[in-house]
Amino acid sequence: MPSPRLKPSDLLTIGEIARRTGLSVSAIRFYEDKRLIEPVRTGGNQRRFLRSDIRRLSFILIAQRLGLTLGEIEDELAKLPQGRTPTAGDWEAISAAIRLRLDERIAELTRTRDRLDGCIGCGCLSLAHCAIWNPQDQLGQQGPGARKLIA
Amino acid sequence: MPSPRLKPSDLLTIGEIARRTGLSVSAIRFYEDKRLIEPVRTGGNQRRFLRSDIRRLSFILIAQRLGLTLGEIEDELAKLPQGRTPTAGDWEAISAAIRLRLDERIAELTRTRDRLDGCIGCGCLSLAHCAIWNPQDQLGQQGPGARKLIA
DNA sequence: CCTTGATCTCAATTTAGGTTGAGACTGCAA
DNA sequence: TTGCAGTCTCAACCTAAATTGAGATCAAGG
């Protein structure tokens, strides 16, 4: 009498999901730590992942490529419905939100390039007058690294 | 008999150059450590900067905003002539090089956006087929952080 | 049953780009 | 010549995003 309740084939070990996503095992554990993903545990305390988690992890990879921090990604993932496996429509909504960010970054870089053109023309690179060094528009990466700590 | 050899007014202390560039004193010392700038020293071992170093530091700030790492910035600065104060023309050459990088990044992001549009259309976010997740074109930021260590 | 590979947790280390603090010395002005 | 702000060096610490290693435990095949 085979048990119909358990379908272990639907659950993936951390090694399996790592292979499927291309992520390292340690990175996946790290993401769990950061609450980006929540696998269930076996009686022996090992992680088991849903198939839909592959898509979730893929999203993390893609969003990182688009320049989002893990914190921002967590915010996006929080928009997914709790309790049920996300549908294609759920993912579409998030993708659209990311498209907006992408558009902004492209616009910022384009503005910067145009200003740089002006600077090349005038030979200008002095902070006092340079149009690039204008606090009014923050480029995506807002200034030197640890400076963020001040904020 | 005033000494005509010394023109201390042409040399700036670290505090002065920090005020003029908006950088912190500690950041400037850090850049010296990274060989991005080489102030001379007084008999009492204090740093003294040339006026042209203001422009050099400004360049560092601008290049960072454009997404270059300090290492890449060092490479660009290495193109400046040794021994003489850089001219406007010297800076123009470097600005032009950076403009190229900017163009590349804009092109990359634009390609990515177009692909994302395709993904939104098909609801696709699976690594196996997603056009965004294509190792063939590396977006400027090449994947998750510490992964760089491997290379 | 036993071995072996996979996992587990937890702490330390990495890179980039700095900041912060301690304790000592400099330099300029009154 | 003293007073004090500015500097000096050096070491420790910070965030992000992970990796690496130690030592223990799990799970599945033979």
Number of helices of chain A: 5
Q: How many extended strands of chain A?
A: 2
Write down the oligomeric state. Answer: homodimer
Strand content of chain A: under 5%
Low-confidence stretches of chain A: 1-8, 135-151
Along the chain, the helix and strand elements of chain A come as: HHEEHHH
**How does the overall form of chain A come out from the CA principal axes?**
elongated
Radius of gyration of chain A, in angstroms, nearest whole number: 22 Å
In whole angstroms, the N-to-C terminal distance of chain A is 62 Å
Report a brief summary of the structure:
The first copy, chain A, has 151 residues and is an all-alpha fold. The first copy, chain A, has helices spanning 14-21, 25-33, 52-65, 70-77, 88-122, and strands at 40-41, 47-48. A two-stranded antiparallel ribbon of chain A has the order 1-2.
Helix-strand layout with pairing:
Two copies of one chain form a homodimer.
Chain A lengths: L13 H8 L3 H9 L6 E2 L5 E2 L3 H14 L4 H8 L10 H35 L29
Antiparallel strand pairs in A: 1-2
The first copy, chain A, binds a DNA duplex (30 and 30 nucleotides) through helix 2.
Describe the 3D structure:
Two copies of one chain form a homodimer. The first copy, chain A, is mainly α and 151 residues long. Helices cover 49% and strands 3% of the residues of chain A. Chain A has helices spanning 14-21, 25-33, 52-65, 70-77, 88-122, and strands spanning 40-41, 47-48. In chain A, strands 1-2 form a two-stranded antiparallel ribbon. The longest helix of chain A is centred in the C-terminal third of the chain and has 35 residues, at 88-122. The model of chain A is unreliable at 1-8 and 135-151 (pLDDT under 50). At the A-B interface, helix 3 and helix 5 of A face helix 3 and helix 5 of B. Chain A binds a DNA duplex (30 and 30 nucleotides) through helix 2.
